[in-house]
Amino acid sequence: MGAFTFGMESGTIAGFQAMESWLKDFGYYDEALQEWNIHTNIQLAVGAMSLVGAVLGSISSGPIGTKLGRRPGLIAIALTAIIGVILQVVHASLALMLIGRLFQGAAIGFASNFVPVYQSEVAPTKYRGILVSLYQLGVNIGGVIGTCINQGTHNMETRWAYQIPLLASLFFPAILILVTFVLPESPRWLLSVDRIDDARISLRRLRGKEYPEFQIEQDIKDIAEHIAIEHQLEKSSSYSDLFKGTDRRRTMIVCFVLFFQILSGITFVNSYGTYFFEASGIENAFLITIVGALCQLAGLLFLYPSLSLMGRRTILLCGAVAEVVCWFIVAIVAVAAPGAPEAATCLVSFICLFSFFFTWSWGAAGWIVASEMCSNKLRSKAQSLGTVINWTTSLVVAAISPYLINTSAANLGGKVGFIWGSLTLVGLIWTYFYLPETDRRSLEDLDEIFMQV
Question: Which of 35, 168, 341, 358 is at 20 to 30 A from 379, Cα to Cα?
Fold first, then answer.
């Protein structure tokens, strides 16, 4: 439910900026173009506020999860999402809309931290990888649902055009609250705060009545030992250790993978895609956005069999090559045939292909590589730093994108592909020369590789 909440928010907001009813409330009428538009600074604020909220939510997730537990974190996802929607629905006010976006962004930040952590801590070992990977699948499915609702309402002439998608996005947070009340708390967190009896009860609920009692006790013992080891590692390390010795290269890899992930242009596509299509003169922009969301979902599904056939590095390299080709074709055709129907068809086709290849490679495999690169004692710190860089880069991209595509600003249209294609090309070159393969290598093997560098 937390992943669906994340996906729904991302899937709906991009469409709002292309809805005439939304533009009437928050935009202006452009006499020169004879159409409704949005001021660039407002477009920037709308895109950025959610990401600011996500950064704040991510930063505060650690203290909340450590002190209060995982279940309160799940409830925080739902409550902040609900508050964000209510603020945007009660009155057509720019201030309320931006504050609401901030709350929805905080829900995204909470979801990106609490959901995978809870899944990994309550799932049996043999199902852990599958269940954690379902988080990204839920985000993509939520995005498809959001874009489909936009398609059904965007032609309405009243505020219901954007308020119906907002109200519909309350469904998943409401279900999450109800479900959380019956979910057991994470046994791992309970043991970390010395609530051993509660941890035993929670683990029994998770494993079922048929699970042997001696195995429950063994699991409790194993979890407690791992917690003790992690606490010792945390005490013996600091953030400065991330940039010492062989860990410096590991840290740089984590940060650059998550940095180039965003510079591929995915934040631009997800945040401003529908507006970009309409500004480029493409009909059925909302329908095209659905196709793009489905392409992202297909890319994720295609990744699962690919991981067993191809190495992580190979997937990232192939994905980057495909993304560069897609962006440069979009840009070159936009220069060669501006305003031509063929250029519009090309733009739609290759951005949908980009969406597929991104999710197949950097979108999902990028996080896998980032998690595998860290040494045990610095894993949480390196992941935290990488996540902050990822969200911060998204914020910067969201801030500059309106000035690139708004019809009252640079209005680059398809030529924006030169920017994202060039940045992705830099990421491709970095990957080729700097990123080692992690597939089928143990953590000890990786330690040896970095010791030799």
Answer: 358
